[in-house]
């Protein structure tokens, strides 16, 4: 019984909820964000939160670029510290093929130095021609 409780605590602590997001491009099947079941997602300063996006590629491309931004005091600013190349260490092997389903994985680092605020984050991945492979917006709070 003790082992079941420990296992349940581990599963609960790493829970990534399926989150309804506002899509702004591409064929997103599902977005999962650790410790978030519905926006606004709450991220603790000093934490790292896993994000996964299942999408169907709308293009053939040998490279991808990730651009993550957040609205801070009215300005859309780049999210610092994230890997801008989804093809390296984010569960995607390039080249990608049109019509194939992929899962993009990212660990979002929330610095302890970030201000406490409510914001909107935009996650966008583009191909070598700068066409959108997928894009979504989600409301969040840094606490």
Task: Please characterize this protein's 3D structure.
The chain is mostly beta strands and 143 residues long. The chain contains one helix and nine strands; from the N terminus they run H-E-E-E-E-E-E-E-E-E. The chain has one helix spanning 2-13; strands at residues 16-18, 22-34, 41-43, 47-56, 64-72, 75-78, 101-110, 117-127, 132-142. Strands 1, 2, 3, 4, 5, 6, 7, 8 and 9 form a nine-stranded mixed β-sheet that branches.
Q: Would you tell me the structural class of the helices and strands?
A: mainly beta
Low-confidence stretches: 1-14
Number of helices: 1
Note the quaternary state here: single chain
Query: How many beta-strand runs?
Result: 9
Compute the CA-based radius of gyration. Answer: 16 Å
User: How widely separated are the two ends?
Assistant: 35 Å
What coarse outline follows from CA principal-axis ratios? globular
* Main pleated sheet: 9 strands, mixed
Q: In percent, how helical is the residue content?
A: under 10%
Give average pLDDT, whole number.
87
Q: What percent of residues are in strands? A: over 45%
The topology string of helices and strands comes to HEEEEEEEEE
Helices and strands in order, then pairings?
Layout: H1 2-13, E1 16-18, E2 22-34, E3 41-43, E4 47-56, E5 64-72, E6 75-78, E7 101-110, E8 117-127, E9 132-142
Parallel strand pairs: 3-9
Antiparallel strand pairs: 1-2, 2-4, 2-9, 4-7, 5-6, 5-8, 8-9
């Amino acid at each position: 019984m003790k082992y079941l409780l420990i296992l349940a605590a581990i599963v609960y602590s790493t829970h990534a909820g399926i989150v309804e997001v506002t899509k702004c491009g591409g064929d997103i099947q599902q977005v999962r964000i650790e410790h978030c079941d519905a926006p606004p997602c709450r991220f603790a300063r000093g934490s790292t939160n896993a994000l996964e996006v299942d999408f169907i590629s709308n293009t053939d491309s040998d490279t991808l670029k990730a651009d993550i931004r957040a609205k801070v005091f009215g300005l859309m600013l780049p999210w610092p510290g994230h890997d801008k190349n989804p093809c390296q260490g984010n569960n995607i092997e390039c080249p990608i093929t049109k019509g194939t389903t992929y899962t993009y994985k990212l660990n979002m680092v929330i610095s302890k130095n970030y201000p406490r605020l409510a914001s909107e984050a935009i996650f966008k991945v583009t191909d070598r021609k700068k066409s959108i492979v997928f894009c979504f917006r989600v409301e969040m709070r840094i606490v």
